[in-house]
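FIELD: query
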Amino acid sequence: MAKPPVDRPADVDLDEPETLARGFRPYRRYHLTLRTPGHAPLRQRRDILIGGKVIAVLPVDPARHEVVLIRQFRLPAHLGTGKGNMVEIVAGRVEPGETPEVSARRECEEEIGVAPDKLVELFSFMTTPGITDETIVVFLASIDASRVPLQCGAADEDERIETIRLPIDDVPAVLEHGGVANGPLIMALQWLVLNRARLGDLLNA
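FIELD: result
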């Protein structure tokens, strides 16, 4: 097999960015010069939402063969599809001074009410690299699903979260039905379907 394609650094010069707006995330404008072999330098203007690093966690109970999902309201989903009460996995921003693992543990406690017994980093991805630098680090977590309450959420963040305990055997049907649209959820469940046989090795290593 030939060497697979990979992302690589670019030959680019960035001007000092201009902040267009400050809200939940900063919105910045960049002017840049991109150099590509065999071509003249290309001048571009790009407006970027600064999302930073985010974690997502797939909580699995290996003893009960369950995965714990959550449901909460998302305004962009409501505006985009009319289905704002989204099914998701645990997720949240990596706060200043936190490592992704510390953030993953904190978000589990806030969103499903239990701390993970073990965390395993699986993979990372960019959500929409054409408009934001947001990068999501996905973890697998071992938990005791019997301790998960029906309702969770951080009061100081105005969260109202419903928890969902789902047999792992039912995960393929969730994907096949196509009734969920949350990207980290879909990727994590696809990973689970492909790697279910490895759960014991990963969580007991």
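FIELD: remark
The longest strand covers residues 26-35.
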